[in-house]
UniProtKB/TrEMBL annotation, chains A, B:
NCBIfam families: PRK00823.1-3. It comes from Guillardia theta (strain CCMP2712) (Cryptophyte). InterPro entries: PCD_sf, Pterin_deHydtase. It catalyses: (4aS,6R)-4a-hydroxy-L-erythro-5,6,7,8-tetrahydrobiopterin = (6R)-L-erythro-6,7-dihydrobiopterin + H2O. Belongs to the pterin-4-alpha-carbinolamine dehydratase family. Keywords: Lyase. This is 4a-hydroxytetrahydrobiopterin dehydratase. The keyword Lyase applies. The lineage of its organism: Eukaryota, Cryptophyceae, Pyrenomonadales, Geminigeraceae, Guillardia. Its EC number is 4.2.1.96. The keyword Lyase applies. GO terms for biological process: tetrahydrobiopterin biosynthetic process. GO terms for molecular function: 4-alpha-hydroxytetrahydrobiopterin dehydratase activity.
Length: 106, 106
């Protein structure tokens, strides 16, 4: 994305984040960022999920901060450009949810 | 791997770790584990590296603890089975070095 990201306003943040919070995302205490822990059957599934997310990250030119330990993947999303949450995080989080569901159902 | 991993003895640890230390790996202060930070040109390269490592991890049935933020990948290796470093960590670290070199040279 070439356009500079704009930090979400409080009201818009609530509207956009509510559906993600319902899926288990949470807003971090220490940063203007959202976070979720995913757990899969094994490493193979966890990494398959990461591969799916990486495709979206590449396409959106927006990247997660993520940690993988065996079947677990912890993801934090924020936008360095605007030093906080932007619509890019919401969009990436939605794709992440789809990927997690796809991989878990396979 | 079906065989239970054995924790490396001090002398054998020195011999096996020396070549890895020369490549920039370090032994952690807080855990019997080794650690290295890798940096690539961009996310695409970093993730390509991770994909290469994942193939080895799967084959060896031994997995890294790793964090990726854009072009950076921080890796910690230890063996939960024996609560410390084993030959599996050394073997995986060697493959990780090869993958990093391959991806950086491409």
């Amino acid at each position: 994305m070439s356009q500079r990201a704009e930090r979400l306003q409080e009201e818009e943040k609530r509207d956009l984040l509510d559906p993600l919070m319902a899926e288990g995302w949470s807003v971090m205490d220490t940063r203007d960022a959202i976070h979720k822990k995913f757990k899969f059957k094994d490493f193979k599934k966890a990494f398959k999920f990461m591969q799916g997310v990486a495709v979206h990250a590449d396409r959106l030119d927006h990247h997660p901060e993520w940690t993988n330990v065996y079947n677990k993947v912890d993801i934090t999303l924020t936008t360095h450009d605007c030093d906080g949450l932007s619509k890019r995080d919401i969009e990436l989080a939605r794709h992440i949810e789809e990927e997690a569901k796809n991989v878990s159902q396979q």
